[in-house]
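Structure (tokenized):
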């Protein structure tokens, strides 16, 4: 971390995590989740924007709402600056595949699939040190546990 950058505290991290989940969450809701007042949350968000920590908010467009057809799918984005930053620092091209992504999709036969790039493939593709594999090694087990749990669901 650069010397002139202030470290984020636990509340900043909590706010960032919530905003990454839902960028439209209200400051009142963030205040409830952080035990701060809404004005204090708004001030923290503004400071995070001024420092360049938050660089923007993005809209997700529904294809059907604009007249396009697309089979059911859901892209899950699993990111952690604490895990991903060392990978990108060691191998900048890793930013092409980070944050990690898992795609759940339905084919023309109505069968469901789950696709993702295995951590081993990402290490081979980008050449980051083996020691950093621990930062993303849990992905395959996480996906397998979710798939197994969904197979048991009624």
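Design, position by position:
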């Amino acid at each position: 971390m650069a010397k002139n950058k202030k470290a984020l505290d636990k509340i900043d991290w909590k706010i960032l995590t919530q905003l990454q989940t839902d960028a439209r969450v209200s400051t009142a809701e963030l205040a409830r989740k952080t035990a701060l007042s809404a004005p204090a949350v708004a001030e923290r968000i503004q400071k995070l924007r001024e420092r360049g920590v938050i660089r923007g908010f993005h809209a997700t467009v529904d294809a059907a709402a604009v007249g396009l057809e697309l089979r059911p799918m859901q892209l899950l984005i699993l990111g952690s600056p604490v895990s991903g930053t060392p990978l990108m620092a060691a191998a900048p091209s890793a930013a092409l595949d980070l944050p990690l992504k898992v795609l759940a999709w339905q084919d023309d036969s109505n069968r469901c699939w789950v696709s993702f790039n295995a951590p081993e493939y990402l290490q081979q593709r980008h050449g980051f040190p083996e020691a950093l594999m621990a930062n993303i090694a849990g992905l395959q087990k996480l996906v397998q546990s979710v798939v197994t749990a969904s197979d048991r669901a009624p």
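Reviewer-requested clarification: Strands lie at 73-78, 100-106, 112-116. The chain has a mean pLDDT of 88.
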